[in-house]
Amino acid sequence: NAGVTQTPKFQVLKTGQSMTLQCAQDMNHEYMSWYRQDPGMGLRLIHYSVGAGITDQGEVPNGYNVSRSTTEDFPLRLLSAAPSQTSVYFCASSLQTSGTDTQYFGPGTRLTVL
Amino acid sequence: GENVEQHPSTLSVQEGDSAVIKCTYSDSASNYFPWYKQELGKRPQLIIDIRSNVGEKKDQRIAVTLNKTAKHFSLHITETQPEDSAVYFCAASRGSWGKLQFGAGTQVVVTP
Question: To the nearest whole percent, how much of chain B has pLDDT over 90?
Fold first, then answer.
């Protein structure tokens, strides 16, 4: 199994540009999520999904959209990039939706918005 | 919502000594408390977790304790080694839709 994969690893955008961060998992996990990691602030939940066709907002959803058309894929879309969205983005998945089992993280995408 | 505070933000220990990181949480309904380790430039990885029906859990040199009354839990690393140098995150969940609330992290540096 490849586990959780993310592309790209690095990305530089200009303010106002849009882009999609890709996330895929091959473990047949029901739960998938996106976090952003900023210095001194830990990992903050952006959006999450408990199954195909079901998504919901996390702690910091503004400026981001998600969709879950398949169990495997959970892309994160930045609609109009802003410098405040400069961060490291991690996708994670877990087998159950209960919130009480291991979350497996992808390798991360480092995004810089100029 | 849940709020998790983690202390200290940085911790420097001599190789062989013990390290303790403490977290407090606000939601009394939280029942799952994992700890993640993140090495520089890498992804967070689960190292140990504890559930609300257990007071202590050990796995070789690491242990986690939970005090539900006081709403705090701690990570203990004994006989620290250079490879223990990393950022450690605590988290808490009430089991609803997989949402984890993370602490801000502790940078642990183990010096030889």
Answer: 84
DSSP state letters, chain B: ---EEEE-SEEEEETTS-EEEEEEES-TT--EEEEEEE-TTS--EEEEEEETT-SEEEETTEEEEEETTTTEEEEEE-S--GGG-EEEEEEEB-SSTT--EE---EEEEEE-
Q: Does B29 touch chain A (CB under 8 A)?
A: no
Backbone angles phi, psi at B83, to 5 degrees: -70, -5
Q: Kindly indicate the confidence band of residue B97, based on its pLDDT and cuts at 50, 70 and 90.
A: low
A42–B89 C-beta distance less than 8 A: yes
- What type of residue is B24? T
Place of tokens 């903050």: A44
Residue with tokens 């062989």: B16
CA dist., res. A59 & res. B22, Å (int)? 23
- Which residue has better confidence, B5 or A101? B5
The pLDDT of residue B94? 85
In this prediction, residue A40 carries a pLDDT of: 81
Name the minimum distance, in Å, from the CA of A42 to any CA of chain B. Answer: 4
Q: Is residue B102 within 8 Å of residue B89, measured between CB atoms?
A: yes
What is the Cα–Cα distance from A103 to A83, expressed in whole angstroms?
28
